[in-house]
Every structure is written in structure tokens, then in C-alpha cells.
Amino acid sequence: MEKNMLLSQKPMLLSQNMRMPYPERFPKVRKTMCRIKQVLTERALVEEDASRRKALREIINDL
């Protein structure tokens, strides 16, 4: 959610010639999302059902 909010807020503020408040949030959110994806990928890899594993990977790749 935070990622989507930041990505939608950035163009809006730029169009109004305003600066992003707390721009340091971008790297923090990116790092957090990478960690979440890593955990989800690890869980998908240990999934025994091939079709479920494939579905989980598709979900992870859409994040």
C-alpha cells in the first residue's frame, strides 16, 4: 500500500511543482518490498504442489 501511495503521490506533487515530503521513504519502502518478496519466494519454493507454486510466483512477480 505504501508503495502505491508513494508512486501515485509523486507525479501529482511534481505536476503542482511541489516536492515530495520525506523522500527518504522511497528507499525504505523499496527495501521492505524486496524483503517481503524474498520471504514469499522462499515460501513458494518449498511448496510441493507445482500448480500452487506457479500461482504463488505469479502473485509475487506482480508485486
UniProtKB/TrEMBL annotation:
Keyword DNA repair: no
TM spans (from-to): none
Keyword Ribosomal protein attributed: yes
Predominant cellular place of this UniProt entry's protein: mitochondrion
Annotated Gene Ontology cellular component terms: mitochondrial large ribosomal subunit
UniProt cross-references to InterPro entries, sorted A to Z: MRP-L47_sf, Ribosomal_uL29_mit
Compartment list: Mitochondrion
Keywords noted in UniProt: Mitochondrion, Ribonucleoprotein, Ribosomal protein
Pfam families referenced in this protein's UniProt entry, alphabetically: MRP-L47 (PF06984)
GO MF annotation list: structural constituent of ribosome
Classification via PANTHER family: LARGE RIBOSOMAL SUBUNIT PROTEIN UL29M (PTHR21183:SF18), RIBOSOMAL PROTEIN L47, MITOCHONDRIAL-RELATED (PTHR21183)
Family statement drawn from the similarity comment of this UniProt entry: Belongs to the universal ribosomal protein uL29 family.
Record's protein name: Large ribosomal subunit protein uL29m
Organism the protein comes from: Physcomitrium patens
